[in-house]
Design a protein that fits this description.
The protein is α+β, with helices and mostly antiparallel strands. The protein is built from six helices and five strands. It has a three-stranded mixed β-sheet, with no helix packed on it. A two-stranded antiparallel sheet has the order 1-2. Strand 3 and strand 4 form a beta hairpin. The protein is globular and about 50 Å long. The relative contact order is 0.13. Bound molecules: zinc ion (2 copies). The site of one zinc ion (ZN) has 7 residues, from loops. The site of one zinc ion has 6 residues, from loops.
Length: about 140
């Protein structure tokens, strides 16, 4: 089991029970989750939404958590130490899942560099559609 206290302290955080609980939940459940989903999955401590958002924003600033905002006001959070991947999102029920693209697609950055003379450093690709329950 990971030492969340140490992980928090190494990023300059005081290891409060709330921060530890949020980090542990995101680490154990390695998929994109909404703030509401995180709150629902958290047994203790009791936390209000404002506190949770403060913790998530602080984690995001320190690069511990990635925020994926696919439409205004609807964000997902996932632990940041995962291998590079993408997402597919259900436009009906807002469910989001991780996906991996073939190497040919991941290598598009080089084509784009040739065409534009940009130095490509990162990319995001999200797919939208209907999940099995909604289609
Ligand atoms: Zn759906
Ligand atoms: Zn990619």
């Amino acid at each position: 089991m990971k030492d969340y206290k140490k992980a928090l302290q190494s990023k300059g955080f005081k290891a409060t029970q709330g921060r530890e609980a949020v980090l542990a939940l995101l680490d154990r459940n390695r998929k994109p989750q909404t703030a509401a989903g995180i709150l629902a999955g958290m047994r203790k401590p009791k936390m209000d939404q404002a506190t949770l958002y403060r913790i998530l924003e602080a984690f995001e600033r320190k690069g511990m958590v990635k925020k994926i905002e696919f439409k205004k006001g609807y964000a997902f959070y996932e632990i940041a130490d995962q291998a590079h991947h993408h997402h597919v999102i259900c436009t009906s029920c807002n469910r989001m899942e991780d996906i991996h693209l073939p190497h040919e697609l991941e290598d598009q950055g080089r084509q784009i560099e040739k065409q534009t003379k940009f130095k490509v450093q990162d990319h995001t690709v999200e797919f939208f559609g209907l999940c099995p329950d909604c289609k």
